[in-house]
Amino acid sequence: MTRKIFRKCLFTGLLFVMGLLQPVSVSAQNTGLYSNKLDTLSFGERFAIKTNAFDWLILTPNIGFEFDLANRNWSKWTIGVYGRYNPNTRHPRVTYNVYDLKELRAELRKYWRTPKYVAYYVGLYGSYDDYQVKFSRNGYKGKGWMGGVSLGVAKRLYAYRNGSNVDFELGLNLGAMYTKDQKFRRDTDADQYIYEPEKDWHVIPMVNDLSMSFIYRFGPGIKDRYRKREVVDDAYRRRVNERQLAHERAERERQIRHDSIQAAKAEAKVLKEQQKKEAEATKAQLKAEKEAAKAQMKAEKEAQKAEAKRLKANKDYIERDEGRESVKLTKEEKKAQKAAEKEAKKAAKEAQKGANASEKERAKAQLKANKEAAKAAKAAEKEAAKEAKAAEKEAAKEAKAAAKRNR
After folding, report:
1. What is the pTM of this model?
2. Which of 27-31, 202-206, 340-344, 353-357 has the lowest mean pLDDT?
3. What is the CA radius of gyration of the chain?
4. In whole angstroms, what is the distance from residue 283 CA to residue 158 CA?
5. What are phi and psi of 87, to 5 degrees?
6. C-alpha count within 13 angstroms, C-beta hemisphere, residue 308
7. pLDDT, tens digit, for every residue of 154-191?
8. What is the rounded CA–CA span in Å between residue 144 and residue 156?
9. Strands 98-113 vs 77-86: parallel, antiparallel or unpaired
10. Closest CA to 103 of 206, 18, 215
């Protein structure tokens, strides 16, 4: 049994060592050419061969292949197949521990690389398993399908002069198995395994694999794969920068239009307030002029009334006789004339007072309107200057951020 296991491990190990051998022809011109090219991967350079050291530690021969889905070193998607096989072995007696496994797994991955040449990956996998495992009193034998997610990290170990590389990977596969199995136990007296009836299909959550793998890549390793596209593609970087600058320019133009609209609205508001004040001043002036005209008309009516009284008194004086009656009428006439003159003087004074008051009210209203208009214009100018300053500050901040990104 030990000899068969040794031969099996030796054969699989030789396959892996053959993949690590350098090609016979080595070109010095290829050294270091994988740091700034866009299309660095030929069809053969997209392949990688891998083996899991952890499975070898538990005496399970294994091998896997990985293939990049695109031929550019900024492509991040790969597909892989992986197989491990620990077949049934013959023993002189039934053993307490049993570990027989056949598995074929397919996996889709996406990588992210850091500036320190470390790549992280996450993926989806599916596998078919045929197993017989026993490490305790009871064991299980069955077959099933497994699926789940894989995640891990990879880092370059060694680089060859021809561009090939050896990477190391740590990973974990988590998922669930849809399986049909049966429980068994060891009967030492009969020297055989006793199997219980087979259990129907059911789901078991489990860890599928712990990966400590060595990967031989026939092209660039982790250091020159799975990079950001703008790092290796100058045309793409220029397009990205132009798109970013166009976006920032459009944003600045939009901000300028917005500030212009706000300034125009503020100016229109100030103009509207000024027009409103002027209309109120004009209205007050018209009211004062109307009051003055009314007072003047009243004074003229009073003067006409006094003149009529005076004419009537003169007429009465002519028609009456001389004597005491005449003297009496003369006194009344003088009295009436004096009263008429007094009324006329009072009416003229009222008219002058009304005219002065209307002129004063009009000047006061005009002065108030001018003060309000000047105050509103000053406030609008202050607001427009504040908004323009804020827009300039925002544009400077965006230009600084764009310059920082370009660096």
Report:
1. 0.51
2. 27-31
3. 54
4. 95
5. -75, 170
6. 6
7. 998 988 888 889 999 999 999 999 999 999 988 888 87
8. 35
9. antiparallel
10. 206
Q: By the 8 A CB rule, do 181 and 133 touch?
A: no
Q: Tell me, what's the pLDDT at 289?
A: 86
User: If you classify domain 2-231 with CATH, what class do you get?
Assistant: mainly beta
Provide the percentage of residues in the chain whose pLDDT is more than 70. Answer: 80
Q: With H, G, I as helix, E, B as strand and everything else as coil, classify residue 119.
A: strand
3-state secondary structure (DSSP) of residue 92: coil
Helix/strand/coil for 107: strand
- Tell me which residue of 119, 205, 212 sits closest to 170, measured CA to CA: 212
Query: CA angle 171-177-181, nearest 5°?
Result: 130
- Strands (E) in 53-117, as ranges, are 62-68, 77-86, 98-113
Burial of 308 (0-12, 13-18, 19+ CB in 10 A): exposed
Mention every residue, 6+ apart, whose C-beta is less than 8 A from residue 350.
Answer: 295, 298, 299
Highest-pLDDT range among 82-86, 231-235, 312-316, 395-399 = 82-86
| Domain edges within the chain | 2-231, 242-406
> Is residue 49 within 8 Å of 16, Cβ to Cβ?
yes
Please compute the mean of the pLDDT values over residues 294-305 and round it to a whole number.
85
CA end-to-end distance (rounded Å), the chain: 64
pLDDT tens readout for residues 189-219: 887 888 888 888 999 998 988 999 999 999 8
Distance (Å, rounded) from C-alpha 130 to C-alpha 63?
17
At which residue do the structure tokens 């197989």 appear? 83
Residue 36 predicted with pLDDT over 60? no
> Do residues 102 and 127 make contact, with C-beta atoms less than 8 angstroms apart?
no
Q: What is the DSSP string of 249-299?
A: HHHHHHHHHHHHHHHHHHHHHHHHHHHHHHHHHHHHHHHHHHHHHHHHHHH
